[in-house]
Structure formats: C-alpha cells, structure tokens
Design brief:
Elements (H helix, E strand, L loop, with lengths): L1 E5 L5 E8 L3 E7 L2 E7 L5 E8 L4 E2 L3 H8 L12 E12 L2 E10 L2 E16 L5 E12 L18 E15 L7
Antiparallel strand pairs: 1-4, 1-11, 2-3, 2-11, 3-6, 4-5, 5-7, 7-8, 8-9, 9-10, 10-11
Length: 179
C-alpha cells in the first residue's frame, strides 16, 4: 500500500446550487486536506477528506456568514465536514465509483461520486504526485441543512440539490527507509 497526502494548495472543492429557481450560485471550500491510499500498482483503495466549513467562499461575505451560521453548517458546533470511503470500485481507464460516509452538520449519511485519476508523475523536487478529478450531487436536506424561504411565485430561495466538482492533487509519502 502507498499513502498519499492531499496537497491543499493544489486541490479545490467547488459547488453549485440553484438560487430562486432562476440562477445558480457557485462557491468553494478553501481549506481541506486528507489522505488517499493506493495499492503498489497505483490502484485507488481508500480516501479520507476533512473540509473546514469556515472556509466556504461564495464571493458574498454576508451569504458566507449565513452559511456558517446555525441555519446551515453551524460551524461552532460542527467544525469539520468529513468523508471516508467505504467502497472504491474500479471502472477502467483510471475511473472509479467512490462510495462512503459523509458527515455534515452532525449527521452521517452515505454519499457517492465518480473520479478519474491521472498517472503519477515526479515533480521537480523529487516528489511523486498524482491527481484526480471528480463530480457528484447531494441533496443538502439529507444532512439536516433544511433552512429555506418560499417565494411568492412558488420557487424556493435555495435549491436542495448541490452539485460539486473536485480537483485533487496528492503527494506520495516518502517511505521511512528512504528518509
């Protein structure tokens, strides 16, 4: 097995959600990290990611503060969002279906998404790096993020489905014997 550390400076987790039923608001979590395990032949085996919900950024500071409040992420009580894979299913050509447990707002539910990996490369400093791109969709209400407001014309202020995309770059751990 090989262990990889997610490189937060080269990793992004972006999301999109409908606003008033007529447009889409986009944002991202700016702080996250974690580990990935692969077999010796670089086959993906497991993923664990921790996200700092305080780092949410939608480009509107008032909206971000509302998202950090008890109406949504309640970052005072729940300072982390955590995903731990329980299933990694190879689909061929570096693609995988990932299933696992996602903990948000004090609730843990099953979540799934797909990723496509890139072959590892050596960076200019002698580190082995690998990358993956992925996407998925969640219903925020499944994790107790239920705040909303009905509008006169029948739409909801905030959509329920959250689409997300991720770009991950990870660095292989240096074996103890090589240090």
């Amino acid at each position: 097995m090989k262990t990889w550390s997610i490189d937060p400076s080269h990793t992004s987790l972006d999301f999109a959600i409908r606003h008033m039923g007529i447009s889409t608001v986009r944002g991202r979590f700016k702080k996250l990290g974690g580990t990935i395990e692969t077999s010796d032949n670089e086959t993906l085996k497991s993923i664990e990611v921790t996200i700092d919900p305080v780092s949410i950024d939608t480009g509107d500071s008032k909206r971000d503060e509302h998202l950090r409040s008890a109406d949504f992420f309640d970052v005072e009580r729940y300072p982390e969002i955590v995903f731990r894979s329980t299933r990694v299913e190879p689909r061929g050509n570096g693609r995988y279906a990932i299933g696992g447990e996602l903990s948000i707002h004090g609730q843990t539910r099953r979540a799934a998404f797909e990723v496509e990996t890139a072959s590892p490369v050596n960076d200019p400093w002698g580190n082995l790096r690998a990358a993956a791109s992925g996407n998925g969709k969640l219903n925020r209400k499944d994790w107790g993020l239920t705040w909303n407001q009905a509008l006169e014309f029948g739409a909801l202020l905030v959509g329920e489905d959250v689409k997300f995309t991720l770009e991950v770059e990870a660095v292989a751990a240096v074996p103890v014997a090589a240090r």
